[in-house]
Write a structure and sequence with these properties.
Mean pLDDT of chain B: 87
Mean pLDDT of chain A: 90
Number of strands of chain B: 3
Order of helices and strands of chain A: HHHEEHHHHHHHHHHHHH
Radius of gyration of chain A: 21 Å
Number of helices of chain B: 13
CATH architecture of the largest domain in chain B: Orthogonal Bundle
Distance between the termini of chain B: 72 Å
Low-confidence stretches of chain A: none
Strand content of chain B: 5-15%
Oligomer: heterodimer
Helix content of chain B: 55-70%
Number of domains of chain A: 2
Largest sheet of chain A: 2 strands, antiparallel
CATH topology of the largest domain in chain B: Tetracycline Repressor, domain 2
CATH topology of the largest domain in chain A: Farnesyl Diphosphate Synthase
CATH class of the largest domain in chain A: Mainly Alpha
Helix content of chain A: 55-70%
Largest sheet of chain B: 3 strands, antiparallel
Shape of chain A: globular
Low-confidence stretches of chain B: none
Strand order of the largest sheet of chain B: 1-3-2
Chain lengths: 319, 359
């Protein structure tokens, strides 16, 4: 599916650099969020044109947030390529992000479901609130996991919630209980995705080879960092902050590298344990969701069940 | 073994049983998530835990957390002030009544602290505004039902103790009546607890300040005077300030949950200014109180010391950048430290006055 173009008016050719910028932007990425739209939409028999609109909406919003995020963080690389603000100009990066968000509203309002427009606008405002708050905790090495969870719930999970709920809203199914459960499941998926992504920074299950300790080096104590450092002495925390490699980080736990590694691994296991409880909570909501679906929609459960494996454990679903 | 959860809606007959823990056998329902708080659609997801597997600290620590032992300074210091003041003034007329009222106040305070936690648990306030304080009910150390029963016994014991004093000191029932009117006005004015509403903030100031010290003084048989009322205003202001700082530390979560108090109404930037100005006003009140009721030495030296010790708090409040980071907790700790320093200066001053009285 081509996520870039929904309507021929989306990206006018007469605007300089706009199409080049978006070609670069949309060529990378796994498109997980749009796939999630498909996982939910197919069992509900949502029309393909609507699925396309929803998939493009979420990709537009996600990519707009990346354009702005990279500029805010002064990141140099995105998906292995030069970031838009560096390759073009910061002004173009801001304007193209705004442009994507505007196109979302144009396309959704053409679709005509005002509740979908309203919910999407709320989601965008949550996303921005999360970005704003995340920026305000950069350099804060005493931030707690609970506080970061609240930020991630706005910044990351809001998109996951949208992916689960939007196909139902597009079908004009506004059942409160159903949306409440989907909202919670989206919130958990977002949290798990973020926490797993944060673990990559500490080289845990880092099969995609993400740069290690990148968050820490840029002054951001991510969710695992906050969990790991809670209860540490100031000297230990100082050591963590100054670490440039994982082996150096182990020494924050003990002067003996082996003992340090063991203590670090124990922390990872503890973190995995609390996330396993979160996965149990997701499965609890999934059982409740099952009771609310019509027989022909039950395939949705089968589609949603393995997502925690994929998002948190970063592995293919077990049989 | 996967963790067991159950989600119940407000209108479910089992909802309150789970929240109160009134029908528990070997499992305790611990709320992990509240949705649509304060609305008809409110529902709570509980984690069902084997009671025997819940990790608890020593009984002493459970009791200390339950009655909020650390906060007892809020009622003990005014008691000390009234005792010392009347000792110096030679107006210590009825020590027996004073003793009974003191014990009754301690019991009442413990009972109300537990009651407050029960209320926060049932209303969901403690699940919205998570903080670092250990809440025994939220952690599953005790059921809300049992905690509520303990609080009722404490309040009842307090009422029984104060009864004979009310017969001897005829002014006391009037003070208690005023306090009760304020208490119930606050309780039923809105559907939130005292710390979450403007009117409640004023009532809390009255109860913990002027009403408390007037009650002590009347129980002693000394009647109310302007000095004790002025102290009540000063003390009430300081306690209210701590509450405002606490509300400030929850400003974002409170705002998102629709809780209305001075901090959420002012917003982050104005609250920051409000807190800075608030403590300047307190220092002003402190100087005035000492100018009228203390020696020049303590008015000057004590005030300078208080200003000096307040500097870190001013700096922490000014430097705070986010409604989400660790800065809010730091401000809260610094405000408590400054409050304790203020009490320490006052305490030394009173000891000085007592010593001067003896020699």
């Amino acid at each position: 599916m081509n996520y870039k173009i929904y309507s021929p008016q989306d990206f006018p050719a007469y605007l300089p650099k706009l199409n080049m910028l978006f070609d670069d932007l949309f060529s990378g990425g796994k498109g997980f969020r749009s796939k999630l739209i498909g996982f939910v939409s197919e069992p509900l028999s949502v029309a393909h044109s609507t699925q396309n609109l929803l998939a493009q909406t979420i990709e537009f919003i996600h990519n707009a947030s990346l354009l702005h995020d990279d500029l805010v963080d002064r990141s140099h690389l995105r998906r292995g390529k030069k970031t838009a603000w560096l390759k073009y100009t910061p002004e173009y990066a801001v304007l193209s992000g705004d442009y994507l968000l505007a196109r979302v509203m144009v396309n959704l309002s053409h679709f005509g479901n005002i509740k979908l427009v309203q919910y999407t606008s709320e989601m965008i405002s949550d996303l921005l609130e999360g970005e704003w708050l995340q920026d305000s905790v950069v350099g804060d090495y005493f931030v707690t996991l609970e506080q970061l969870d609240r930020i991630h719930n706005l910044k990351t999970a809001s998109l996951f919630k949208w992916c689960l709920r939007a196909p139902f809203i597009a079908q004009e199914n506004y059942d409160k209980e159903l949306h409440f459960i989907l909202n919670e499941m989206g919130s958990i998926l977002g949290q798990l995705f973020q926490r797993s992504d944060d673990l990559l920074d500490y080289d845990i299950r880092n099969d995609e080879g993400k740069a290690v300790l990148g968050d820490l080096k840029s002054g951001y104590l991510n969710s695992f960092g906050a969990f790991m450092t809670s209860g540490m002495t100031k000297a230990q925390l100082d050591h963590v902050i100054k670490s440039t490699t994982i082996s150096e980080l182990y020494l924050a736990f003990s002067n003996n590298p082996e003992a340090g590694k063991k203590a670090f691994t124990a922390k990872v296991e503890e973190f995995d344990h609390i996330n396993t409880k979160l996965i149990d909570l997701y499965n609890h909501h999934l059982e409740n969701l099952d009771k609310l679906l019509k027989p022909e929609q039950k395939a949705l459960i089968k589609n949603l069940k393995p997502l925690t494996e994929v998002l948190y454990w970063r592995r293919k679903p077990s049989a | 073994m996967p963790t067991q959860y159950i989600t119940l809606k407000k209108n479910d007959p089992d909802f309150l049983n789970h929240l109160w823990g009134s029908k528990e056998s070997n499992q305790r329902a611990i709320p992990v998530k509240t949705y649509n708080l304060g609305t008809e659609e409110e529902s709570v997801t509980f984690e069902l835990k084997e009671i025997s597997k819940i990790q608890k600290p020593s009984k002493l620590k459970v009791v200390a957390s339950l009655v909020k032992l650390k906060s007892f300074i809020l009622i003990l210091f005014p008691l000390f002030f009234v005792l010392a003041k009347n000792s110096v003034d030679n107006r210590f007329f009825d020590p027996h009544s004073m003793l009974l009222v003191s014990i009754a106040t301690l019991l009442l305070f413990a009972g109300l602290n537990i009651r407050n936690d029960v209320y926060d648990h049932i209303s969901g306030f403690d699940r919205v505004n998570l903080d670092s304080t250990r809440k025994p009910i939220r952690l599953g150390w005790i059921s809300a039902h049992k905690a509520s029963r303990i609080s009722l016994w404490l309040i009842l014991a307090s009422a029984i103790l104060v009864l004979p004093v009310a017969l001897v000191q005829i002014e006391l029932p009037r003070v208690i009546a005023v306090a009760l009117i304020l208490f119930f006005a606050g309780r039923f004015a809105k559907d939130n607890s005292y710390k979450n509403q403007h009117f409640g903030e004023f009532i809390l100031f009255m109860l913990i300040g002027p009403a408390l010290v007037s009650g002590y003084q009347v129980a002693l048989g000394s009647g109310v005077d302007t000095e004790v009322l002025a102290f009540g205003v000063l003390w009430g202001f300081a306690v209210l300030y701590l509450i405002q700082v606490n509300n400030f530390s929850h400003i974002m979560t409170s705002s998102q949950s629709g809780i209305r108090n001075s901090m959420t109404k002012l917003g982050f930037d104005w609250s920051q200014k409000f807190l800075l100005i608030g403590w300047v006003v307190f220092i002003g009140l402190w100087v005035l109180f000492h100018y009228f009721y203390s020696s020049t030495f303590w008015a000057v030296f004590g005030s300078l010391l208080l200003i000096f010790w307040s500097i870190p708090m001013f700096m922490k409040i000014s430097n705070i950048k986010s409604p989400m980071g660790s800065g809010l907790q730091t401000v809260r700790k610094e405000a408590y430290k400054t409050f304790i320093m203020m009490v320490f200066i006052f305490f030394m001053e009173i000891l000085w006055a007592l010593w001067a009285d003896i020699i």
